[in-house]
Amino acid sequence: MSTPPLRVELSVEEDRTLQDLRGASGVPQRTKDRAEALRLSHRGWTPQDIAEYLGWRVATARTAIHRWQQDGLSGLWDSPRPGRPPQCTTAVMTALEQHLSAEERTVNSRQLMDHLSDVHGISLSRGHLRRLLKKKISVETHPPQSSPPSRPRAASPETG
């Protein structure tokens, strides 16, 4: 005896919510794709068809459907990533930048490290602080390029 096909049955309200979620700004693309997968399943698409349409593996389409069946709307979002949260948030980096611009003298990494410890209660190594500052400076001074620069063509023997 075969099992029934994996399929989602949505109410009109749930379908409308998922449709609105697809067009909402500030929602991660993966969440929008999961909402689309559920709407397609509701319209009779198989997990294989959904996976092919979205460029997923079949197991990913099945997982999206199972997450909806178990957790409902909250199952569309990713769970928080594991690991220690960063100590030096963007707010701290902005405050540090303001401190540096207000400082009249040159400051080294040890003095910045002491400032972070005293004012913000953050303990970073000098090496880590330097990496953070380099990363911030690199992002500000070198915006990402849309395409790699092209190589200049070598002069052909006919023109040279």
State the CATH architecture of the largest domain. Orthogonal Bundle
Mean pLDDT: 84
Amount of helix: 55-70%
User: What is the general shape?
Assistant: elongated
Cα-based radius of gyration, to the nearest Å: 26 Å
Percent strand: under 5%
CATH topology of the largest domain: Arc Repressor Mutant, subunit A
* Tally of separate helices: 7
Structural class: mainly alpha
**Topology as H/E string?**
HHHHHHH
* Unreliable sequence segments: none
Q: What is the number of domains?
A: 2
Main beta sheet: none
CA distance, first residue to last residue: 78 Å
Number of β-strand runs: 0
CATH class of the largest domain: Mainly Alpha
Could you give a short description of this structure?
56% of the residues lie in helices and 0% in strands. The chain has seven helices and no strands.
Tell me what the structure shows.
The mean pLDDT is 84. With 160 residues, the protein is mostly helical. The chain is built from seven helices and no strands. The chain has helices at residues 12-23, 29-42, 47-54, 58-71, 90-102, 109-120, 126-141. The termini are far apart. The longest helix is centred in the C-terminal third of the chain and has 16 residues, at 126-141.
